[in-house]
């Protein structure tokens, strides 16, 4: 199992490759707000653990294992953003809140949150009912 830090790297590498077709050390460093030397170290570890293949002058590619987990990590991040959005969390808080919780939930909890998001999205009256409660709570 990757550590939370490894998960952050795999997630960002997956995103970069999806968006640009490649992931450079400098782009990863920028996306994660870390020093390029930290990226190089982590990329070597991810290579050793077979999440990716790193060649100094040719860049890096995710292995099948790296792609599979990367896809799940990106899905998890997006699902948690959807959850916070649907329950009315302010847009300005959503990204950082998700970064704070995403590594600490079981896949069981993620699947159940998927059900909950679906529960709200299937019927707008459910979101409205939640808003009524929130308005009451705000008034108290
Ligand atoms: Mn994330």
Automatic annotation (TrEMBL):
HAMAP family for the chain: HTH_MntR
Superkingdom of source: Bacteria
Binding-site residues for Mn(2+) 2, renumbered to this chain: 11, 77, 99, 102
Binding site for Mn(2+) 1: 8, 99, 102-103
Subunit architecture: Homodimer.
Cellular localization per UniProt: Cytoplasm
Described function: Central regulator of manganese homeostasis.
Main location: cytoplasm
Gene behind this protein: mntR
Organism: Niallia nealsonii
GO cellular component: cytoplasm
Protein's recorded name: HTH-type transcriptional regulator MntR
Regulation of this protein's activity per its record: DNA binding is strongly activated by Mn(2+).
NCBIfam families per the UniProt record, alphabetical: PRK03902.1 (NF003025)
One GO term of the biological process aspect: intracellular manganese ion homeostasis
């Amino acid at each position: 199992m990757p550590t939370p830090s490894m998960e952050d790297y795999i997630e960002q590498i997956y995103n970069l490759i999806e968006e640009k077709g490649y992931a450079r050390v400098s782009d990863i460093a920028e996306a994660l707000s870390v020093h390029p030397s930290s990226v190089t170290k982590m990329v070597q570890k991810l290579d050793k653990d077979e999440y990716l293949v790193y060649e100094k002058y040719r860049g890096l590619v995710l292995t099948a294992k790296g792609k599979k987990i990367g896809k799940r990590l990106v899905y998890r991040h997006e699902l948690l953003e959807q959850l916070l959005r649907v329950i009315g969390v302010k847009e300005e808080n959503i990204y950082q809140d998700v970064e704070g919780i995403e590594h600490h939930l079981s896949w069981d909890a993620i699947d159940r949150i998927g059900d909950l998001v679906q529960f709200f999205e299937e019927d707008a009256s459910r979101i409205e009912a939640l808003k009524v409660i929130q308005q009451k709570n705000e008034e108290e």
